Amino acid sequence: MGPAEARSRFRAGVRVPTAGWAPGYAQANMIVVPREYAYETLLFGQRNPKPCPIIDVTEPGSPYTALAEGADLRTDLPAYRVWRDGELVDEPDEITRYWSDDLVAFLIGCSFTFETPMLAAGIEVRHISRGSNVSMYRTNRQCRPAGRLSGPLVVSMRPIAADRVADAVRISGQFPSVHGAPVHIGEPEALGITDLSAPDFGDPVEIRDGEVPVFWACGVTPQAAIMTSRPPFAITHAPGYMFISDVPDHTYAV
Amino acid sequence: MGPAEARSRFRAGVRVPTAGWAPGYAQANMIVVPREYAYETLLFGQRNPKPCPIIDVTEPGSPYTALAEGADLRTDLPAYRVWRDGELVDEPDEITRYWSDDLVAFLIGCSFTFETPMLAAGIEVRHISRGSNVSMYRTNRQCRPAGRLSGPLVVSMRPIAADRVADAVRISGQFPSVHGAPVHIGEPEALGITDLSAPDFGDPVEIRDGEVPVFWACGVTPQAAIMTSRPPFAITHAPGYMFISDVPDHTYAV
């Protein structure tokens, strides 16, 4: 299934995590803010490029992106989150009724982009094998603030066989603009993560003997900044329920 | 000579192109705009990352950068350009009298960053050998606009021996956040450059038999956008007279 077909299913109401969908095409996190917060959001991305690699910014009021012709950011993601003063107030399937001419959408690279080349190299990606959402955790590391926006680094975690961790580093490191190499390998306590079986976002996955938890910077980080910084209004994708673009993964490889 | 010593000489009035100075430390282009233009400037960088890789943004009114402790962006570059309504009105050694609480400075990666590893690989960098400024040209390629900002791509050119062009691509490609691999190799006419001996910025350099002109995206591109878009006020570095940071070149290598 290609990206346009996937988007049309989500537009029709299919609500599933997108890992493994439209393989070979880049997926993206989304954060939508009032124009008055656009500079600080863009600057937060510039100052925290590992968790927040911004790959497109819409014109104010426009739901269209250069990453997929004809896509509508108000309807083409499988699930959204709506935030008021930092509180989650709705998790709708589409956001047309929340849209206004004052909103700017930021699309942020997603680590799902390098899962296809990891699978091609024979590295198991457990949440894809299990058909579940990736595990994500808030950490004790703070992002560099930008004006009124601050918050902790969020990471995604994949259990990787110890003899394939170096390959996972090498492969993901070829995609620096979509989170790139891991930020942390093993030792979750050092990130302030006390229980891997209770992720802050997404689903838990089994970690087997001989496997190491590997942590990548995650595009859910701006949602944690919203929860911390409490802007009056924001919309995001639901974690793991991404925008699927028309851009081939290899576009982001170096 | 280290970067702090170089900056102190420039602060004392030394006015020279910085290629080859403080080898091993990243140099940066600078553009300073009123706060009201900050979002469009940052967005112009996001939309044109090859010529405008933004590596730091100051707080409004602050002349200090995270890239070099104690450096003062108002005095520590060897030469500046001051622009009003898109016209060059001054080329001072320091800009203290032009500074105000309303200004935001953007530092942009510079291709001088990968000249040190090119030299280490035995590739001659002619403008360093000759002690002159690098050759820079406006091209017929347009950048992706951002609000009121638009303009042509500017490139720097280095003549490279035909049997070392691939090495120059490989080495510069390891630095994607400071312009990265060339945008064009040979065939200057296809970029709209009719006379390599008459660069739009910097000095001409000899191209010898067996050498190919190789073009990299250049951080002078925002200056061309100022000339095209005519914001009421801006300050930039003088082309080739860069800010020298305390950040080692290898920080930007992947």
UniProtKB/TrEMBL annotation, chains A, B:
Keywords: Lyase. The keyword Ribosomal protein does not apply. Coiled coil: none annotated. Its EC number is 4.2.1.-. Pfam families: D-Glu_cyclase. The keyword Lyase applies. SUPFAM superfamilies: PSTPO5379-like. It comes from the Bacteria. Belongs to the D-glutamate cyclase family. This is Putative hydro-lyase ACFSJD_37690. It comes from Pseudonocardia yunnanensis. The lineage of its organism: Bacteria, Bacillati, Actinomycetota, Actinomycetes, Pseudonocardiales.
